[in-house]
Amino acid sequence: MLRFVTTNEGKLREAREYLGAEAEVRQLDFDTTEIQADDIATVAAHSAREAYEHVDEPVIVEDSGLFVDALAGFPGPYSAYVEDTLGIERVWHLAEMEDDRSASFRSVIAYCDGEGFAASPEPVDTERRGPDQGADERATATTDDQVAAGDIPVKLFEGYVPGEIVAPRGEGGFGYDPIFEHDGTTFAEMDAEEKNAVSHRGRALAKFGEWYQARTQ
Prior knowledge:
By secondary structure, this protein is α+β, with helices and mostly antiparallel strands.
């Protein structure tokens, strides 16, 4: 069984679609401490480690953000806060003043089961850290010695979809979907199936699913 730390039913359905019935994905409603960091991988790893210590079962956490190139990646890991406080239209107006409106949605799936991981292309977060430490401290492998020392490793899987910031269009989706255009269509103009086929979260889940299947065979 795999516990997905989320209160979003849409995210849960998407995870079940990508991971299949064999993974037996179940929702975990657990309020993790969301640290402030300049990298979504750092935030996701911290939450996954905390959730694993809470339930002592394999867990995944997903964190994502909108990264606008001309705004130096803003709002990035602060996307939820910016959406709540400024709103997506103000983000559009900021981008509107720039010649380059390119952007990307990025997602990180963080997995923790208390065990170590073999070295692989996917990064492994091996160090418990506070809000003042950055993602450049992540390692790319871990050992059983690190597990014994208390630094519970977390495997990270990243998904990315390029696009452009545009004036709000569309009635579907949520969050920044109305102002994020991919291949001429905003995420808010896509139905759920179309969006899931190209989404950053879906790409991260696909990577994780392939790896997880091999791990659990």
